[in-house]
Design goal:
By secondary structure, the protein is of the alpha+beta class. The protein is 53% helix and 8% strand. It has 9 helices and 4 strands. Strand 1, helix 1 and strand 2 form a beta-alpha-beta unit.
Length: 215
């Protein structure tokens, strides 16, 4: 049975999973969840994803949600095909986990709030963004990216010189940050080069404007 991805084609976490599926060359069926009508809060959906968020996957009855958990599952189960995304060596894997933690604590925390305030809030609610809140998030993100700049001056990717899931995890919000009007990425040359390298990958090019089934 083909793996099925349930989500919204422009939702950041759904894009994260679809990118990994393409990198690992895993055929999948994509089922759109209409978040504009509240489908993700319906009783049937909540049976699969109790927090009412997108995405989740169903593979032969095995249901899993949370985009990073799904990504790790895919990278582990299909380790023999596609792009290697989780190192096998213990030390290299530890560095990958370190990088993945960096993304969650030092990038997503601030980038997600900045994008939500400046891009999603006006687009989906019609409300004006809170500029002071946005600037606070961007300022904090800038401080974190200063550290990224130092790390990436010494190596190609966040965990070393090989691509891992930790790098790909950044893509959805890294892609949206310029839409906020901020140059928090462009102002840091090593970070900018790293992001452009990730955005140029065929997997991201295939999902950035939407997601389609490959099976």
């Amino acid at each position: 049975m083909v793996l099925t991805l349930y989500g919204h084609p422009l939702a950041t976490c759904t894009q994260r999973v679809a990118t990994v599926l393409l990198e690992k060359q895993v055929p999948f069926k994509f089922v759109v969840v209409d978040i504009t009508t509240g489908e993700h809060k319906s009783p049937a959906y909540l049976e699969k994803q109790p927090f009412g968020q997108v995405p989740y996957i169903d593979e032969d009855g095995f249901v899993l949600f949370e985009s990073r958990a799904i990504s790790r599952y895919i990278a582990d189960k299909y380790s023999a095909q596609g792009t290697p995304l989780i190192p096998k060596d213990a030390k290299d894997k530890a560095l990958f986990e370190q990088a993945a933690s960096i993304e969650t604590a030092n990038f997503d925390t601030f980038a997600g709030k900045a994008v939500s305030e400046k891009v999603f809030k006006p687009a989906f609610t019609g409300a004006k963004p809170d500029e002071a809140f946005f600037e606070t998030q961007i300022t904090e993100l800038g401080k974190k990216l200063d550290v990224y700049e130092k790390i990436l001056s010494k190596q190609k990717y966040l965990a070393g010189n090989e691509l891992t899931l930790a790098d790909l995890f950044h893509l959805p919000y890294a892609n949206l940050l310029p839409q906020t009007g901020s140059k928090v990425i462009e102002e840091r040359p090593n970070v900018a080069k790293w992001v452009e390298d990730l955005k140029a990958r065929p997997s991201w090019q295939a999902v950035k404007q939407g997601i389609t089934s490959t099976a």
